[in-house]
User: Fold this.
Amino acid sequence: MNVILLSGGSGKRLWPLSNNAYSKQFLQLLKAPDGEYESMVQRVYRQIREAGINDNIVIATSKSQQDLITVQLGSSVEIVIEPERRDTFPAIALSCAYLAFEKRCGLDEVVAVLPVDPYTEISFFKMLSKMEAAVKEQLADLVLMGITPAYPSEKYGYIVPKTGQKDSFARIASFREKPDKQTAKQLIADGALWNGGVFAFKLGYLMNILEQYLNPKCYEDVLNNYVKLNKTSFDYEIVEKADSAAVIHYEGAWKDLGTWQTLTDEMSESTMGFAKAGENCENTYIINSLNIPVVALGMKDTIIATSPDGILVTNNEASTKLKPYVDKLDLRPMYEERRWGSYEVLKSSDSSDEDDDMQTLTKHIHIKSGKNISYQSHKCRDEVWVIIDGRGDLLIDGHVRNVQRGDIAYVLKGQKHAIRAVEDVHIIEVQIGTNLVEEDIERFDWEWE
Assistant:
């Protein structure tokens, strides 16, 4: 069985720890069996393997998440990069094309699709094998996993089986998307299940559908014509139109840790980082990713979270209403992890002269020993690098020289440049230009000796 994991998200409901580049599934806040902290994507990937599923696992995601996935899961993980975000239907179609054309999977092989971030048990992933068996036995073209509702939620879609939720396998009568609470109560009474976004089907089933859109002959055909695929969810485009769809019932524990309230319920410690909850603190969580202390006194049912992006102080219940406020901030991520290390924005400013559109941006860049940033150039900015620790090899326009603590390098617009760390390198980078964005980058090939 092939598994497609969908990794998306805007990262706004768990702000300030998550952002557009660092979505909730990458926050390492959950205790792993070995006592270390792991992220949601690490937990799900581990649980899939522990459930005995050892076949292809492909992660569909955007370019902005590629480095984080590689950092957290290792360089051997297979990633399908969406040319642009177009919802779950195009992402699944592209991933299936990858399996068919690049991995040479047979059209009779079963594909299971699920999100990277459910908080659940090993039994949940073992259910994938039952879904695989149902597809192989041709009980239905498309098999979904329905989850026993824990409460009448207005956040989830519902699957209504024809024969009620007590049957482990049932044909689907209808779907209801995010009903109001009263309707949700009635749906549950009628045997409806939560739709957890888990699907299974034969690879050929989806490839036949894809042919109706693009008739691709190779994987590149789908990549190059990705914009032609309808920008909509897999549920709307495929599931609700399917002639042969069924649901398998999962009765175990399952949660969407999509808010601070649900996430802190599963955290094993009430404080993380340089933090202290003092006298008379009750049901209070402090997650501090800054290198300055945070102390709380006399707080009840409170969540305090800090990062370079900002500071959140909220009542536990009110934390579910965070997203609209973050939507209005419109700030760039101040911290990102990359496969070569990480960077943090220290200061960003515009010129005070109305006739001068120059901007400056100061970063602290950390490049891990043995790693290097890509050979690149910029159109809109000059850069000044001050090496504050470590040793490395600096490359500018084809010329390599050794650098160490105290050295300074000047990189002008259009100059190709890179640096490789011989030992961990820390750099203060000052950008000066008119459009200081991460997208202002052109990459080139270079073979380090």
